[in-house]
Write a structure and sequence with these properties.
It contains one helix and no strands. The chain is mainly alpha-helical.
C-alpha cells in the first residue's frame, strides 16, 4: 500500500510541475510579446528621431548657405557703400576747398576795399 501512495504523490507532483511549466511558458510568451512590442516602439521612435535629425541637419545646411550668401552680399554692398562714401568725401573735400576759396576771395576783397579807402 505504501508504494501506491508514493507513486500517486509523484504523479501528482509531476502534473503540478507540468502545469507550472506550461504557465511559466505562457508567462514567458506574454513577456516576450510585451518586450517585442516595446522593442518595436523603440525602433519606431529611433526611426522618427533619425528622420527628425536629418531634417534639422538639412535646415541647418540651408541656413548656413543663406548666412554665407548674406555675408557675401553684405561685403559687396559694403564695398559699394565705401566707394560711394569715397566719392562723397571727394565731393565734400572739393566743396570745402571751393568754400574756402570763396571766403578767402570775399575777405580779400573786403580788406582790399577798406585798405584802399
Amino acid at each position: 500500500g505504501n508504494n501506491n501512495n508514493g507513486n500517486s504523490k509523484n504523479i501528482s507532483s509531476k502534473d503540478t510541475e507540468n502545469t507550472i511549466d506550461s504557465s511559466t511558458v505562457d508567462d514567458n510568451s506574454d513577456e516576450l510579446q510585451v518586450l517585442k512590442s516595446k522593442y518595436d516602439a523603440i525602433v519606431e521612435y529611433t526611426v522618427h528621431l533619425t528622420a527628425e535629425r536629418d531634417m534639422i541637419v538639412t535646415q541647418l545646411d540651408l541656413l548656413k548657405k543663406e548666412y554665407t550668401e548674406l555675408n557675401q552680399n553684405k561685403r559687396k554692398d559694403k564695398g559699394k557703400e565705401e566707394k560711394k562714401e569715397e566719392k562723397m568725401n571727394k565731393n565734400i573735400n572739393q566743396g570745402y576747398s571751393l568754400i574756402v576759396l570763396i571766403i578767402t576771395a570775399i575777405i580779400s576783397f573786403l580788406i582790399g576795399r577798406y585798405i584802399i579807402h
